Amino acid sequence: MKRTLLIARREYVAYAKTVGFWLSLLALPLFAVLGGGIPLLIQSAEPIKAVAVVEDGPTATGLAAAVRASLQSDLDRQNERLREAAEKGQAGAGRAVASISGPKIRLVAPPPAIAEATGPARDAAIKTALDKETPKDRRLDAVVFLSRVDGKPAAQVWTGRANDNDVSGFIRGALRDARRTELLTAAGVAPAVAQEVQSFRPEVKAFSPNAASGGEVSMRDRIPSFIGLAAGFLLWSLVITGASILLNSVMEEKSNKILEVLLSSASATEILTGKVLGVAMLTLSVLVVWGGIGTFGLLSASPQTAATVGQVLMHDGLVFYFIAYMVGGYLMYAVLFAAIGAFCETPRDAQTLMGPIMMILVVPMLVMQMALTSPDAPVVKVLSWIPFFTPFLMSARAPSDPPLVEIVLTLIGMFATAALMVWIAGRAFRAGALSDVKLSWKTFGRAITGRG
Q: In the UniProt record, does the keyword Iron-sulfur occur (predicted)?
């Protein structure tokens, strides 16, 4: 036991002392912050586009006014959402502001050179106005020519950037609303009623007998599903990370003859156990740091949401299910990767068996997304009984309160498979560490059966 703990300590310290470990440790929280903050920063820093609107011909009369009315309506709606969010508190306002994507457009009067010219002269004036070299006070971001085709509103949109679709999208929506109002008015509907129809946004509330309140569905009822999905993805990443560290560690030590030195002082079982335990401690350290950073960030941003997450994790011992599935999943894959590493001296040697294993690990990644909305879908339920998929899919399904018998039986099946994998990996690790045989399905099978 002492030798096992010494090997585990050596494995842990060897990685914990490296700069790369700490960089990778902070990478996920950093990218999470950047992933959430950069889009908001880009959106808030995006300049307001100066757009000139020209009614091209007498048939287009009134379309410019409709575009201006549509823009004002969008701005009023945006201000109303901001006001409602502010009334609900600072955290709610922050989330609401992040979700707002109103048009960043400012309508300006068209220059006479564009409004009054025609043909090539007008085209030249447009290009000058959209040119980056034009002084800022005379530069435009877009020029819109409103017209009618077969009596229906239409537009030509000139933009300074060929891939700028914001103005086109806004104009398309404004003209669609204008056409709808025209048709309603032509059918005898009063203009005020037509405007009401145009601006109507129904308020729809979701109710469920399984909601926490017994009635209306709130964010409290949706959080468990997100937690389950996050737990499944987190477990997947930790298993892959830990198992890959084991594979590379064993492979490097064998190629440098360090494994032979260790075998002179400890048994193959002690080495395998120590390595698995050391990397498990390393993975646990990563999980604790990530959890601490996430908890601190959530408490700072939204204490109420943090309390809700805590309640969900403690509800019916959900956090203990996550821990059990994490232990079983890590054990299954860690010993397998370590056994493969014992046969390899280069990454190329490991590719023979790593390809099929990685294809197996891709399956739960695809199915977990389905578990978010349909945790009891037949394909999700069937695959969650397969031990190699159980830790990931059952972590995603656990918050949806699956039958207790499913949880118990899948845990039994997973740990039984993990025990079998430990036995198989132990034999393979011992055979691989003591020989120079190249890895293949044939040699791996012989090592397991004791004939290699």
A: no
Alpha-carbon distance values, 129 to 46, 52, 162 (Å): 20, 10, 15
DSSP 8-state symbol, 207: B
Question: Is 204 part of any domain?
Answer: no
Query: What range defines the domain where residue 104 resides?
Result: 48-198
Q: Which of 395, 330, 345 is nearest to 365 (CA)?
A: 395
Report the pLDDT value the prediction gives residue 39, as an integer from 0 to 100.
62
Span 400-420, pLDDT tens digits: 888 889 999 999 999 999 888
Number of domains comprising the chain: 2
Is the same domain home to 254 and 344? yes
15-68: per-residue pLDDT in tens? Answer: 888 877 777 777 767 776 676 666 666 666 677 888 999 988 888 888 899 899
DSSP 6-25: HHHHHHHHHHHTSHHHHHHH
The torsion of the CA quartet 35, 289, 94, 370, rounded to 10 degrees, works out to: 60
- Low-confidence winner among 123-132, 170-179, 221-230, 398-407 (lowest mean pLDDT): 221-230
272 vs 7: CA distance, rounded Å: 9
Residue with structure tokens 């999208």?
A: 169
> Which pTM value belongs to this model?
0.67
Calculate the alpha carbon distances from 162 to 106, 166, 174, 230 in Å: 19, 11, 21, 39
Edge-first strand listing for the sheet containing 105-108: 105-108, 49-55, 142-149, 152-159
Judge whether 168 and 42 are in contact, CB under 8 Å: no
Distance CA 348, CA 331 (A): 24
H or E element that contains 186: helix 166-186
Under DSSP, the state recorded for 216 is: B
Q: Give the C-alpha separation, 59 to 145, whole Å.
A: 12
